[in-house]
Amino acid sequence: MPRLLRAVAVASMCSLACNGSHSVAVINRSDAVIEQVHVTVGAERGGLGGIGPGVQGVFIFAGALGKEAVLEWETADQQHRVTVDLRDVPRNFAGTILLEVMKDATVKKSLEDPIPGL
User: Quick check: 33 pLDDT over 70?
Assistant: First the structure.
């Protein structure tokens, strides 16, 4: 997602994010659409539908971050489920947790700091 578009999306969600909520972005780095994308963090489960190649979906949730996130999705021939460790995410982290679905169906986690001034 272009940085400007992401800034607009983050700004529109700031009222949630600034009040104890967290965001998880799922980015599809594969060559095909991934379907039935779901993220579960603690007791919160969000459905993101289908995500095309190079596109991201964002899940915002309130509550505790938890020790792990579970990312589930389907491809044309298989169901996938990957558990991602979140214990290294700072407790007061206000940015976005990025989960990138790679071509080999592995998931790469990284943290993106909030855009200054938002």
Answer: yes
